[in-house]
Amino acid sequence: MKGMPESDASMSDDKPSAAGHARPLATVARHGGRARAELNNTNFNGATMEAEDLSHAELSGASMRGTSLAGADLRHANLRGADLCGADLYRADLRHANLRYANLSGADLRECDMRDADLRGAILCGASLIGAKLENNFLKEALVHGAILDPIDFFVAHQEMEEVMPPMVWRGAS
């Protein structure tokens, strides 16, 4: 895969990515089912990683613009400062993920399980969070201008700021 270290390319499962490269992620991310993947600051822009097991992966600072992660397992993943602008995370599992300072602008987060995720300082401008599970989130200092979500989901989220509500776009509210 483009941006993957050469040593990891030999672990390919030969599934094509959006860029036509082999996808070694399932093997690399688990390393025999035990260790976490060390993929910090890696470029995955435009890649297809749907339904991949990236749980516990180290992806801080990774560039994942426009990446398709629909249905991916990102539980306990470290995505601190990752660029997920425009990424497709539909139905992804982000429970307990570290998304501090991550850029999720315009991301599709519909029906994501984001319970207990750390979103402090994250950028969610224009992101779609309809149907997302947001219980016990940390939203302090998150930028949410233009984010789209169901009001009921937001109110059950653990949020630490009052000023987050005015810039949000509420869908389905009567």
What does this structure look like?
The N and C termini lie far apart (47 Å). The chain contains 3 helices and 2 strands; from the N terminus they run ααβαβ. Strands 1-2 form a two-stranded parallel ribbon.
Short overview:
The chain is mostly loops. It has helices spanning 6-9, 25-34, 151-156, and strands at residues 148-149, 169-170.
Based on the structure given, which CATH architecture is correct? 3 Solenoid
- Tell me roughly what share of residues is in helical segments: 10-25%
The CATH topology annotation reads as: Pectate Lyase C-like
Strand tally is: 2
- Count of structural domains: 1
SSE sequence, one letter per element? HHEHE
Strand line-up of the largest beta sheet:
1-2
CATH level-4 homologous superfamily: E3 ubiquitin-protein ligase SopA
Structural class: little secondary structure
Poorly predicted segments: 1-24, 158-174
Name the overall outline: globular
Q: N-to-C terminal Cα separation, in Å?
A: 47 Å
Largest sheet properties: 2 strands, parallel
Q: Please report the first level of CATH classification, the CATH class.
A: Mainly Beta
How much of the residues is beta strand, in percent?
A: under 5%
- Mean pLDDT across residues: 77
From the alpha carbons, calculate the radius of gyration and give it in angstroms: 16 Å
**Number of helical regions:** 3
Quickly list its features.
Pectate Lyase C-like; 11% helix; 2 strands; single chain; little secondary structure; disordered N terminus; 3 helices; globular; two-stranded parallel sheet
